[in-house]
Structures are given as structure tokens and as C-alpha cells.
Amino acid sequence: MEVILNQDVEKIGRKGTVVQVKEGFARNFLFPHNLAKPATADSLKKLEQEKQIRLAQFAKAKEEATQIKKRLSELSLTIAALTQAEEKLYGSIHAGEISEALKEEGFSVDKSNIELAEPIKSLGIYEVPVKLHPEVTAAVKLWVVKK
Predict the structure, then answer these.
(1) Does domain 66-146 have CATH number 2.40.128.710?
(2) For residues 147 and 84, is the Cβ–Cβ distance under 8 A?
(3) Which residues have C-beta within 8 Å of that of residue 37, sequence separation ≥ 6?
(4) Domain spanning 2-60: which superfamily?
(5) Rounded-to-integer distance, Cα 9 and Cα 17, Å
(6) Nearest-angstrom CA–CA distance, 147 and 104
(7) Sign of CA dihedral 115, 132, 144, 125
(8) Is 1 exposed, middle or buried (0-12, 13-18, 19+ CB in 10 A)?
(9) Fewest 10 Å CB contacts: which of 39, 86, 95, 133?
(10) pLDDT tens, position by position, 25-64
């Protein structure tokens, strides 16, 4: 029996996909838990329309992320930090502080989207990758200076 999944189902498939399952599994588990619906001509047509809408929204979000990437690539952030001898920081610069500095510049970026391999622990100039979209990543120039 072919069904369209309403939600991700482990070992079966992802939301919005058409899968082949046994009739008893669909009738006794998927349908009662609202995890799937029968794959009729109408539901397949509706699924295709929803897919087109999602693709259009995805493309629009990607275009917006590309615009933000251009603006971020021209940006140069400066964060002042307390240092000890040999230009090492007392603490470290982490994604939260970079996110706050971006907010001060007018960019709303969640700290989970800032991809630091490890916290910054010394003075210098760094390229910090910021994930704006699944397919768009911007590089922000960050200057860490002595306070």
C-alpha cells in the first residue's frame, strides 16, 4: 500500500515522501497515529503543490541569505578583550560574543549558526564562518584587540 508520510518515521521515510508499506502497518499504526495518509490521486496532487511552494520558499530564503552574505563579507567586527602576557586572552571569545557583536551591527544571527571550530584565545584577525542558510555560508572578519 502506498502512503504519504505526515511526519518523519524512523526506518520508513521522511515527511512528505510517498512510501510503500504493508496494509496492516498502515491501517493499525500509521493512520491511527496520524503519521501518514493514503496516497490517492488528490493527495498526490496536493503533495506536489506543497512541494512546489516549499521549493519557492527555499529559493527565496536562499536569495535573502545571499544578500546578507554580501553585506556580512564587507563587515569587519572588532571585539576588545582583556589580555595577559604574550597576547593571550584571560578568557576566550566564543560564538555568543560574536553573535552579540553582530546584533550591534544590525544583523540578527543566532549563536548556533556561528561555526567556530574552537573558542578564540589570542589576539589577532580571524575569519569566522556564519551559516545563514543550508547552502549559504558567509565569512566575517573579526579583529580581537587589547582592551
Answers:
(1) no
(2) no
(3) 3, 4, 6, 31, 43
(4) Ribosomal protein L9, N-terminal domain (3.40.5.10)
(5) 10
(6) 18
(7) positive
(8) middle
(9) 86
(10) 999 999 999 999 999 999 999 999 999 999 999 999 999 9
